[in-house]
Amino acid sequence: MATDLKIPLITTDSTKDVTTDSISQSTNPALRICCIGAGYVGGPTCAIIASKCPDIRITVVDVSAERIAAWNSDALPIFEPGLDEIV
């Protein structure tokens, strides 16, 4: 039986228009990253990648809408030194 599972996600806004020509000429062909899980590993890891690689679109998905809402709020769901300044 199929179910409609809606997975909340957060994405970065730092993306560029990409064409086939720009991909073939790129030295870094990975232009999109999807992280499954916005917990203690996925959330901070993707925050660092997004801050260091603004040309890569980062998408984080999680089954918990509350966790995604927390990442999009002023009260992050986890504490990591310096993370508030990055997110």
TrEMBL record:
> Which reaction is the catalytic activity of this chain?
UDP-alpha-D-glucose + 2 NAD(+) + H2O = UDP-alpha-D-glucuronate + 2 NADH + 3 H(+)
Cellular component (GO) terms are: nucleus
Q: Name one GO molecular function term.
A: UDP-glucose 6-dehydrogenase activity
Q: Read off the InterPro entries from this record.
A: NAD(P)-bd_dom_sf, UDP-Glc/GDP-Man_DH_N, UDPglc_DH_euk
Q: Which Pfam families match?
A: UDPG_MGDP_dh_N
Q: Specify the domain of life of the species encoding this protein.
A: Eukaryota
Q: Which GO terms describe its biological process?
A: glycosaminoglycan biosynthetic process
Q: UDP-glucose/GDP-mannose dehydrogenase N-terminal domain: which residues? A: 32-87
The record's annotation in PANTHER family points to: UDP-GLUCOSE 6-DEHYDROGENASE, UDP-GLUCOSE DEHYDROGENASE/UDP-MANNAC DEHYDROGENASE
The protein's name is UDP-glucose/GDP-mannose dehydrogenase N-terminal domain-containing protein
Q: What is the organism of origin for this protein?
A: Rotaria magnacalcarata
